[in-house]
Amino acid sequence: MHAHPSLEEGSNGKLYIDDVSKPNLGLILHAAFWYKPGEFKIEDVEKPQIKPNEVLIRIKYCGICGTDLHAFTGEIPASWLGIIPPVILGHEFSGEVVEVGKDVTEIEVGDKVTVDPMYGCGRCVPCRRGDIKQCLVMKTIGYSENGGFAEYCKARCDLVYKLPTNVSFEEGALIEPVSCAYHTIERAEIHPGTCVAILGLGSIGLILLQLAKMAGAYPLIAIDLIPQKLELAKKLGADIVLNPKEVDLTEEIKNITNGYGVEVCIEAVGKKGTYEQAIDLVGIGGRAILMGFCPQGTTISLDTWSMMLKEITIKLSRENPFTFEKAITTIESGKVNVKALISHVFSLEEILEGFESFKKEPEKTVKVLIKP
């Protein structure tokens, strides 16, 4: 029973907070349940009970992902994302292990950890051919089961990764998005001297930028409409930054590449126009990698004659098959600077403000963390 909830309203959503004056009878006070677009409720929940092969994690930080944002705004249906409300969202998190199941041998109480939130059934055709992240009944912590926008979260021990001593909890909360970007870079087949353009400089785009730099991309071109993000891209390794509001992007790319177009263009926005633009910017024999999530039902127009003449390759990329450990290593080594991306940290009670910051302050907002 949740008596006398208070209501806080933002510009686009509502946050309900349960009456917290009643005695704490072994309940966890902080958990942000997502019910429907624009609405969170801070509720009392029972402490998660772990199975023999699970661990209980005290959450330190949990990032707001672009897909969380899509669900919050209603731009992409929750059912399409595999989200089953009411649920505690949050799949990009780090924390400290406070309890381990009796069958857990490699994780101990006190370990600093992060979690790969997705797991397959192991029985369907994609799983049996090794495409675990294409499982037909994929489960995701923070979507189909409770996630990291809470004080505690449980996870299977095989999904839990220890953080190196020099990787902070804040950085640990960004390992999941780095792992997804790493998969995209692998699909892009970037080699030293490959001309690469990154279209869209949100947190994922800026991670892609750094990974492309690490792979040897040159020249590395960063494209966005927001000057502050272009400046950050320069600091993180971009050789050239372009603002489509200020230049004719197609002509500028031709000038940079002697008329050929880029070898690789990675789209990290998730809009019809940028999908089409990424394909258009690719030169002869090049590759367009589409990573941004478009709303369900989005269709794009393609110049098939141009595509045929250039013999380009179009790939889509999602999730993080077998890249989690690689992501940890890139952060541990300092090759990818994720701390530079953290623009805001909000408490759990401020979660609505965190989600709305992307719309209210797009020029200042890159990566938002929630600290329960």
Describe the protein's architecture and organization.
- This protein is α/β, with parallel strands linked by helices.
- The chain is built from twelve helices and 22 strands.
- The chain has helices at 66-73, 78-81, 125-128, 169-172, 175-188, 203-215, 227-235, 249-256, 272-281, 304-310, 324-332, 351-360; strands at residues 6-9, 14-17, 27-28, 32-36, 39-42, 45-46, 54-63, 87-88, 92-100, 112-115, 118-119, 139-140, 152-156, 160-162, 196-199, 220-223, 240-242, 262-267, 282-290, 313-316, 342-347, 367-371.
- Strands 7, 9, 10, 13, 14, 21 and 22 form a seven-stranded mixed β-sheet that branches. Strands 17-16-15-18-19-20 form a six-stranded parallel β-sheet, with helices on both faces. It has a five-stranded mixed β-sheet with strand order 1-2-5-4-8, with no helix packed on it.
- Helix 5 (175-188) packs across helix 11.
- It is globular.
- The two termini are 22 Å apart.
Number of domains: 2
Largest sheet features: 7 strands, mixed
Poorly predicted regions? 1-7, 20-25
Gyration radius (Cα, Å) is 21 Å
- Quote the CATH topology of the largest domain: Quinone Oxidoreductase, Chain A, domain 1
